[in-house]
Queue: 2 jobs
Job 1
Amino acid sequence: MVHSPKTDYEVIVIGAGVAGIYQIKRLIDMGIKATVLEASGDLGGTWYNNRYPGARFDSESYTYGYSFSKEVLDEWHWRERFSSQPENLRYLNFVADKFSLRDHMQFNCKVEAAHFVENSNIWQLRVNDGRTLTCRFVIMAIGLLSQSTLPKLDGMDDFKGASFHTYYWPHDGIDLTGKKVGIIGTGATAIQIIPVIAEEVEELYVFQRRPNWSAPLNNSEISEAEMTDIRTRYDDIFEACNQSPGGFVHRPDRRSFYEVSREERLALWDKLYDEPGFGIWLSNFREIFMDEKANAEFSDYIADRIRQRVKDPDTADKLIPKDHGFGVQRVPLETNYFEAYNKENVHLVDIQEDPLQRVTESGLRTAAHDYDLDVIIYSTGFDAMSGAFDHIDIRGVGGDKLKDKWFEAPATFLGMMIHGYPNLLMPNGPQSGSASTNYPRGIECGVNWLMDLLAYMRDHDYIRAEPTKMAEQEWTAEVVEMYKIMLMRKAKSWFTGYNSNVEGHEAGHIRHLVYNGGAPKYMARLRTVAASGYGGIEFEGEPADPQEKPLQSTA
Ligand code: NAP
């Protein structure tokens, strides 16, 4: 028998983003005493923080929203096919307010440490306000891309102008009119920012280390009539997402790349290039992801498109990636990105040719030039997936630090649980299905599975759940195996755990962060595990005190 003391909460959720919001809704509905601790000043996660100009979905808006409430689906009108950050934050607030979820959230509460107490099977959380809170289960809804990373450049504190990472874009905005601005990085974030601010600034210097493949977003407004139609099709839309590998409405072309003529391939690509969203990536031939020759032919096609859109041939050439093919990392979708380089005030600085040396009081210094700047924007990405975990002192059985366990690469069971860390649950952890798919679809699936697990534990009076070492090894091996057939294994991107600014995450060593089997396969696996009575997970029994139910009811 295991001693089961009272805890402050039965469940503590860390993070009030897209995952945390849905997670707390389900916990409340189940009558579980739970709270959300959120480090930021309000809810919204990625959509609360990333307030840079141009920030918007790359998923179709109506596939990004929650599917759980018919009322929400009926009442919310997505105004654009790919909705922008302010609207997305309004949406999350609308959902939270509708179900009074804010009452169960605590803001400005950064969890600094989470320690498992073995003799009582509880978690102790240390919060930055000095409190220590206890709970039976801790649910990590801390985001995939929430740990921003800055370059390690000398003189960063010397700069006299404004400088910030895109994740911390000033909440009150910043007027860039007439300013000289430098932006470091050309990932998905910078590709959204550059064409918007190019219209305002006096001069824009883009410091590019490696170019990124990207293709048009082809955004548009959604009229009342179209939204009415979408509402009648929601069931089909979500079902289509569940059936597609990426969790999007886009499905791969069923034909083989080699079965069709070059003309037919070009016809498909011309069509996809003009269509909205990820079709150009996900409705393409499957070989694009796995076959070097097919990928090279398609990459050449996109390179030609870039040359057609950028007037200066040298600039066009610099914007075409040479070290990886199209789609082997998450594809940024753009609106007038390439046209921005046709503007006289936009300058591409190739820092492979002319390396960045330091930040000065007045700007940025490369080997060959000093750039005088009023503002420096660091669009330098994130320590993806495991980074947010590494910044909490998480200790499991035997006091073992999760950061140490995951130093080489994460190991998990289904991306949701970790051996040695009982009752620590992750609706969208490393190696889960959500990372490589349309996030909210993966998140809903993860939360639902965890709630079924908690219900199962309640029914059986279990108070402790931990995956076996073998189950974790098998799942991790499966995740690793899938990388072998994907060209993405060769890319320097967060899909392979690469981040040049984080020790141990530099190129040359793959960290297998992402499950690449696709949504249908992942969901089928989750169902199988649940149906087997959660094979691979060891449970421990009921509390000593028969009065105390393992999951306390708030009712
Ligand atoms: P990112 O794709 O990792 O790009 C970071 C950029 O910064 C890269 O160009 C990188 O160059 C550069 N960089 C990093 N450190 C540098 C250094 N020390 N010196 C010079 N350059 C440096 O990050 P991100 O653009 O923030 O995007 C991350 C992810 O967020 C995306 O993959 C996507 O999943 C998500 N996202 C989604 C949307 C959306 O539409 N929903 C929008 C934005 C972002 P190298 O490539 O040479 O390392």
Job 2
Amino acid sequence: MDKESQISAQNDTIGFPISFQELREVHILYTCAIREICAKLENLSQEFELYNDRNPIQHIKHRLKTPESIRNKMMRKQIPLEFGMMQREILDIAGVRVICSYVEDIYKISRLLIRQDDISLIKKKDYIVSPKPNGYRSYHITVGIPVYLSKETKVVPVEIQMRTLAMDFWASLEHQLRYKPEMEISDSVRQRLTSLAGDMFKADVEIQQIYQEIVYAASSSSAHSRAVIPLDNTPA
Ligand code: 0O2
């Protein structure tokens, strides 16, 4: 399918009138915003690596929310199915997922990102400090980032989900299980999943402590003279 028919096919599933031109503009705008955020995250990660001899970001994924998923969310939240309402109310059309090595890296990287002059914090949900009842843990921030076009500048929202490898392992598999329509998840399986999320968080805490002990031992020995950027877990 060529790009033009792909966009018109998506248009059929969005559920409200939107011109081909508008759809293309949205696509370009949100894609640019994702690119800007990814570049900023990669820059921060590289600088961090220079001073700490390790990469705080394991990998970065991104996606544009599908028209079907946008429509479902608008219907679920009883948002009128209009183009303007979509732009105003749906703040996760552009999504970036950042998988970090340690819990402390999540807070460090998010703080460094938010304090950049052209970034505005729109909202923050800390599911690490306050996990969801099912055990889901992740740090979500929605930021506004300017996209400079030839005739105007638009501030575009991007939802950034930050997690450790363990949190991502759990969330990815739980998401797969939840969306298998042929499978009914029993209460006991739900409880096992929730308990597993807790165990994985314990592993996150333990591995971070091991890391900190190793760094502390290395920095107090005279052989290790490089300065290590101090880290803390204070949420942004
Ligand atoms: P997809 O396909 O990931 O885009 P809000 O936007 O804040 O008004 P919302 O969307 O409920 O309301 O926000 P929230 O709670 O921050 O969750 C948004 C996203 O977090 C979800 O996107 C998931 O990616 C992830 N998430 C939240 N809770 C869970 C969970 O219990 N398990 C898993 N695996 N992921 C979760 P979407 O909208 O589901 O879709």
